[in-house]
User: Fold this.
Amino acid sequence: DDDDDIDLFGSDDEEVDEEAEKLKAQRLAEYQAKKAAKGPGPAAKSMVTFEVKPWEADTDLDELEKMVQGIDMDGLVWAQAGKRVPVAFGVKKLQINATIEDAKVSTDDLIDKITEFEDHVQSVDIAAFMKL
Assistant:
């Protein structure tokens, strides 16, 4: 049968189209170069509101706020001022905001650093967490 020898669609599985392979490799290289030139996108950031609860009503919250804002980490920016929020029986807690870069600052590490002021800090909670 002569019809078996005719390939109507012109596909020879044995031959690799070298020109097409070169073009494919070139386009892939161009795409990778373009992607690398763009660089990473903006850093993912979050706004976190911490509630720092003192041991006693007579704990100096101004001093505590200075201590907390004294924590310095790459990717951490503290808000200008914290708020004093009444809890009960004259005790107030310090509510303070921070902006963190998610890749650089762990909230767990930050809470651990704040609770290291064990003479002043009873506990630390995250009151709000918002992606920016």
Notes: DSSP finds three helices and five strands in the chain.
